[in-house]
């Protein structure tokens, strides 16, 4: 809203400084600062309110050191992240931008699913929370909506490459609807999902959505569940997610800027640069939340936060056509997911074969394994952050590593 006010002041009165609204970098910086202030200044009030309402975490007995001390810690802290993200975005972003609208929808949609899960756990005293099938239905629903928007909306395009710089210096535009994505680490690294059904022959282009939307559903579901599993010890999910989102912010900025995209020889995605404002606000919200969530945590994000984080990361990766980088960029989420899948699968296999279930890890998800080995929470979190930073930098370097 401030964006439109500044635009009006600049157009009508040439108000000093109002032209700054034109620069994504300025609005992104302001969004980060504002979200950081909102999350830190209002976070304490929200935590106190949650504590007064006795919205505390019910801790299951897992035999972990320091576990009992966490009982009663306020949960649903994801509300802080959502609020601190949406306020700056509504004030500073261009709200007619389709990418921004999709990210706002994702934040609210996944936030509601997570809130329902936390509400059932806290007020209905049901430790299982929202039944898994309902969570999956919600994730699938978001995947269908996001996939349909990305496929059908006329303003979601890519610039046909290479763009031709004419002798006059005017750039010819070839903005096209496409399901093209990026294959990391390879030269001429573009892949169109339509190739998966090209065997259908003439007219297959009309059915690409049948493969594209299920892929979006899978990515949204997998990443949101990965973030959910990572949220197990103080500061882990918020910190690793902030690192991941910063990398996606770099991708969004360079992909949405013709000069940088042309220099890096990467896909230019018109209008995608505006996502940088949302990303800056989201990172600020995560960092501000860490103020209270770092060990020893004064608040937990709950599913309200973790599902929202995962959904936003998934949609961002799809929007900047970097979803094939997710296994590397979200390596922490992947490791946490795989640790649970492998643990459960091996336990069931050995129970059938030997009559007694055996385990690969001392406990899953992976961070609990290290807790069982005697590592302190802070050490585990810090080392996971270091791994996350390494993976994020490696992914950013991949822009030229081809």
From TrEMBL:
GO biological process, one term: cell wall organization
InterPro entries registered for this protein in UniProt: Glycosyl_transferase_4, PNAcMuramoyl-5peptid_Trfase, PNAcMuramoyl-5peptid_Trfase_CS
Transmembrane segments: 20-42, 75-92, 98-116, 136-153, 207-224, 236-255, 275-292, 299-320, 326-349, 380-399
Source superkingdom: Bacteria
Subcellular location: Cell membrane; Membrane
Cofactor(s) recorded in Swiss-Prot or TrEMBL: Mg(2+)
Catalytic activity: UDP-N-acetyl-alpha-D-muramoyl-L-alanyl-gamma-D-glutamyl-meso-2,6-diaminopimeloyl-D-alanyl-D-alanine + di-trans,octa-cis-undecaprenyl phosphate = di-trans,octa-cis-undecaprenyl diphospho-N-acetyl-alpha-D-muramoyl-L-alanyl-D-glutamyl-meso-2,6-diaminopimeloyl-D-alanyl-D-alanine + UMP
GO molecular function: metal ion binding; phospho-N-acetylmuramoyl-pentapeptide-transferase activity; UDP-N-acetylmuramoyl-L-alanyl-D-glutamyl-meso-2,6-diaminopimelyl-D-alanyl-D-alanine:undecaprenyl-phosphate transferase activity
GO CC annotation, single: plasma membrane
Primary subcellular site in the record, as a coarse category: membrane
Annotated EC: 2.7.8.13
Recorded topology in the membrane: Multi-pass membrane protein
Keyword set includes Transferase: yes
Keyword check for Transmembrane: yes
Residue positions binding Mg(2+): 228, 303
Entry keywords, A to Z: Cell cycle, Cell division, Cell membrane, Cell shape, Cell wall biogenesis/degradation, Magnesium, Membrane, Metal-binding, Peptidoglycan synthesis, Transferase, Transmembrane, Transmembrane helix
Pathway(s) it belongs to: Cell wall biogenesis; peptidoglycan biosynthesis
HAMAP family linked: MraY
Role of this protein: Catalyzes the initial step of the lipid cycle reactions in the biosynthesis of the cell wall peptidoglycan: transfers peptidoglycan precursor phospho-MurNAc-pentapeptide from UDP-MurNAc-pentapeptide onto the lipid carrier undecaprenyl phosphate, yielding undecaprenyl-pyrophosphoryl-MurNAc-pentapeptide, known as lipid I.
Similarity annotation: Belongs to the glycosyltransferase 4 family. MraY subfamily.
Protein's UniProt name: Phospho-N-acetylmuramoyl-pentapeptide-transferase
Organism: Paenimyroides ummariense
Lineage of source species: Bacteria, Pseudomonadati, Bacteroidota, Flavobacteriia, Flavobacteriales
